[in-house]
Amino acid sequence: MRTMKAIVNTGPGQLAWQDRTMPVPTAGQVRIRTSACGICATDLEMIKGWDRTGFPAIPGHEWSGVVDVVGPGVEASLVGRPCVAENVLADGGEVGFEHAGGYGQFLLTEAHNIRTLPQGFPMQEAALIEPLAVCVRAMRRLGLTRSVATSTAGPECPVRSRPYPANGRAWACNAPRTGSSVAGPPPARRLR
Question: Partners of 79 in the beta sheet?
Fold first, then answer.
């Protein structure tokens, strides 16, 4: 049996560095080798203990990684691709909450949720795409199609996003300190 390392929330306010069974993807799933994972305030609430998730749990919903293995029925060309993904899974649970997240060396997600990234995209910045997606969704819900939003994830990592003014149906994100950027159409699935 292969194992991996993970930071596991073992009880209220308790974290442990543990060996865990390596996840194996089933039909329609991919296994991700975690490259970077943010620490969100929601993770801190989870670690303190709440009703949503039990113990033990592997937090980490602000992750980026590389597709390591694909399950049956998944395009093999995804292997080796850097990515992020929509965390809400078909059963209604989320990666990093009800399902093991990016605090582990590996995690499972559904292949159709994957958003591949350009080769060379900085993976630490890619982990900030999830909180950026939350900002973009809020802007859309508020009807702010011509505005600029700024979100700062710590002193070293300002990230700016803006919808394109023509129709508000595309987005751009850049991290000015490193010159990294990504742009594209909105995801096919609406983010929760």
Answer: none
| Tens digit of each residue's pLDDT (9 = 90 or more) over 105-127 | 999 999 999 999 999 999 999 99
Q: What letter represents residue 157's amino acid? A: C
Compute the distance between CA of residue 126 and CA of residue 24 in angstroms, rounded to an integer: 24
Q: Say if residues 50 and 59 touch (Cβ distance below 8 Å).
A: no
**Residue 2: what are its φ and ψ, rounded to 5°?**
-80, 145
Are residues 89 and 109 in contact, defined by beta-carbon separation less than 8 angstroms?
A: yes
How many whole angstroms separate alpha carbon 74 and alpha carbon 65?
17
Cα angle for residues 28, 32, 34 (degrees, 5° grid): 160
Q: Where are the alpha helices (DSSP H) in the chain?
A: 41-48, 123-126, 129-141
